[in-house]
Amino acid sequence: MTSSVQTATAAPVPPSQWQLFAATFYRNKGAVLGLLVLLAMVITALLAPWLAPHDPYQLFTGKEQLPPFFLEGGDRAFWLGTDDAGRDTLSRVIYGARYSLFIGLCATFIAMVAGVSLGLSAAFWPKVWGKGVMLVNDILMSYPSLLLAIIIAAILGPSMTNTIITIALVCMPPFIRLTRATAMVELQRDYFTASRIMGAGTLRLLFITILPNCMAPLIVQATMVFSSAILEAGAIGFLGFGVQPPDAEWGAMLGTARQYIQSNVWLAIWPGLAIFLAALSINLTGDGLRDALDPKLKQVS
């Protein structure tokens, strides 16, 4: 008597949250390209001492305002030409990534930490404290952000530290509004009521119980603020209120180049292109994160 062997078909293992996130993000080709460009800029900034062909502060006498090497009058030793003082433009653009990305990252981090803290507290104590926080927040948001940044930077004085503080203050209101709106919804959930009945402390309720459930929109907001921070740092540097020459920062390089815009437009093109690519890559990455963090779009094709 032979027994038939029945082959049990194993049920397919459902994809994990990370797999769904990665698959959704990968489907957005623009987001993948933006992330690659952003990673390339970060790596370039970290490896600037080894990638830059020259010292960004070195003056090459007699080599002032050279065009790129592919144009007439260019020099192959200076691929993107030189600035008004004879410094290598490519080296300064590479080192400029350090200043611009560092300013944007620090300002975004400070704005996010302060904005999330104020937004959570405004949602948790909505009567007096919450109304006061949102009143100040609405006043700040009703003022043009770039103009407000210029005013604050002019008051604090030109320096990289003051630029970071200025941009953090300007970028904080969107975090406050978004955190408060998201937390107000989470405060009505059963899990929050249960945690409160079980005796969880205020800090635990705010930062361990509620905050993790608010992180998805905050991460997307952080990418958008990061992009805005780089643009505002460039604008502040362009007007002379940010990082001061001879330090190589993209906005400061643009500010120096404006007086030579007619005689040598290349001085403005390269740092302007760097700012454009950085902001665009961050925005594309943020779009991909928004899609990947949306539960309705997490479907593996």
From TrEMBL:
- List where in the cell it is found: Cell membrane
Q: Organism, per UniProt?
A: Paralysiella testudinis
Q: Which family is it part of?
A: Belongs to the binding-protein-dependent transport system permease family.
Q: Which SUPFAM superfamilies match?
A: MetI-like (SSF161098)
GO CC, alphabetical: plasma membrane
- Which Pfam families does the annotation name? BPD_transp_1, OppC_N
Q: Recall the GO molecular function terms of this protein's record.
A: dipeptide transmembrane transporter activity
**Topology with respect to the bilayer:** Multi-pass membrane protein
For the ABC transmembrane type-1 domain, which residue ranges apply?
A: 97-286
Extract the InterPro entries matched here.
BP-dependent_transpt_permease, MetI-like, MetI-like_sf, OppC_N
Q: What is this protein called?
A: ABC transporter permease subunit
Question: Which keywords accompany this UniProt record?
Answer: Cell membrane, Membrane, Transmembrane, Transmembrane helix, Transport
The protein's predominant localisation is: membrane
Segments spanning the bilayer are: 31-52, 101-125, 191-212, 218-243, 264-284
